[in-house]
Design brief:
- The protein is mostly helical.
- 68% of the residues lie in helices and 1% in strands.
- The protein has 22 helices and two strands.
- Strands 1-2 form a two-stranded antiparallel sheet.
- Helix 3 packs antiparallel against helix 14 (269-289), helix 6 (95-118) packs across helix 12 (235-247) and helix 8 (131-153) packs antiparallel against helix 18 (340-351).
- The two termini are 37 Å apart.
Length: 428
């Protein structure tokens, strides 16, 4: 394991802080807007999100799996909430009813996962999420994240056309970070993300002074329990949320396995159980405060590969600083002025490393004209769905739309089915 020398710790901690913040701040804002929450409630959930994320990262790193893996809002659950909120009118429900059903589903799944983790009953997950399923997971995660960040790098003007100057700036910044990583000496290349954000932030302020807009406005701390809606027994919403929450555990399995491989360690049953217990508790906490369910970010592996700093100390300091941002809102307000284009460009560069992680996962398999289907069908089907207009699924029952329109979820589900239905060893 590589250890950072003393002078790099502050820089590495700041780099972790920027990474955590960039992956966190937008989520509660978009969910609050989707559920028509008042500004003071959105401000409260945003601050809760910063505090909760910092604490979740620290606890998992110290008590759970014990790797420096960011614990953040699940992209899978984020997409589910946004889709369900957009379908409220079609389902004849109010946003409060949908939010309450989601809260109930997250509470139930959180209790189930925490209890099963405590009783060591989740070993079945290790058999369901096989190496091939996790390889499919990593490939689809890479494509999904790069699609998201590439769109963020190419913004549109109010007239709906490409903002060429900002787009060229974003592409140039991403290229700068990549070249810095490839050509720079280790002392420079390992901090390419931090350097890219600092340089990009400064240049953006100079080149585009008329496009400055804070994404997060700190104000009084209005903590509200169940801001999305009071828990109810809407069975259909609860069932979809519960299923997605269980599938969200694939994030946990993939991230911890990839972290163990990166650190050349073996994850014990005790570590798995503690990880699941915390995951369940995080789901309960997220439901209470109107946050997206949490999961370890498999994308953190790309960040670690890019920075080459595997010491836990900067990660823990970064988590503590995240808590401070939520407790002292003025600090969060300063970081919130980080332009989204800068964050998207730098994260796009960092997450290219995920493709290498996916290739390493699949390296042990040999494929022929038949066995190639075990990888090709789920991966390419998932990528195709990611690029389809969701409107073509309008005839699908509304409650199934969040599932069938999510290429990431569908790809993983197809892979699980193929691995359990087909005896691939029979075909070589």
């Amino acid at each position: 394991m590589l250890k950072s020398i003393s002078w790099t710790t502050p820089l590495a901690s700041l780099q972790w802080l920027l990474y955590m913040f960039a992956n966190t701040v937008v989520v509660p804002l978009t969910v609050g807007a989707a559920f028509d929450l008042p500004p003071d409630v959105i401000a409260g959930t945003s601050r809760c999100s910063l505090i909760f994320t910092g604490i979740a990262c620290i606890l998992q790193s110290l008590v759970g799996h014990r790797f420096p893996l960011m614990e953040g809002h699940s992209g899978l659950m984020w997409g589910l909430l946004l889709t369900l909120s957009a379908s409220a009118s079609a389902m004849g429900m109010s946003l409060g009813e949908i939010g309450g059903g989601i809260a109930t589903g997250m509470l139930l799944s959180g209790f189930v996962v925490a209890i099963m983790g405590a009783l060591n009953l989740l070993n079945i997950l290790q058999r369901i999420f096989t190496q091939m399923v996790m390889s499919v997971f990593m490939f689809l995660l890479t494509f999904q994240l790069l699609f998201i960040f590439s769109k963020g790098m190419l913004p549109l003007t109010p007239e709906g056309v490409l903002n060429v100057p900002v787009s060229l700036f974003s592409i140039g910044l991403a290229t700068f970070v990549i070249v810095l990583k490839i050509k720079g000496k280790p002392a420079i290349g390992n901090f390419s993300i931090l350097i890219g954000m600092a340089v990009g932030w400064g240049l953006y302020l100079i080149l585009f002074p008329d496009q400055q807009a804070a994404t997060y406005t700190p104000s009084g701390f209005h903590m509200t329990l169940f801001p999305l809606g009071q828990p109810n027994w809407n069975v259909s919403i609860i069932a979809v949320t519960f299923l997605a929450s269980l599938l969200n555990l694939s994030n946990t399995v993939a991230s911890v396995r990839a972290g163990a491989a990166l650190f050349r360690q073996t994850v014990t049953n005790a570590q798995w159980n503690r990880t699941y217990i915390l995951a369940g508790l995080y789901s309960i906490g997220a439901a209470l405060f109107g946050l997206i369910a949490y999961a370890p970010f498999a994308s953190t592996i790309g960040f670690l590969e890019s920075t080459r700093n595997f010491d836990r100390k900067p990660f823990l300091i970064g988590g503590a600083l995240m808590v401070m941002l939520g407790v002292i809102p003025v600090f969060g307000g300063i970081l919130a002025t980080l332009p989204s284009n800068v964050g998207n460009a730098v994260l796009f560069s960092a997450y290219l490393q995920l493709f290498g992680t996916a290739l390493k996962n699949i390296r042990g398999f040999e494929f022929n004209s038949i066995t190639i289907y075990r990888a090709a069908i789920p991966i390419l089907t998932g990528v195709c769905i990611m690029n389809l207009d969701t409107a073509i699924f309008s005839q699908v029952p509304v409650l199934l739309q969040p599932l069938v329109t999510n290429g990431f979820m569908m790809g993983v589900i197809i892979s699980i089915l193929l691995e359990n239905i087909v005896n691939w060893d029979k075909y070589g």
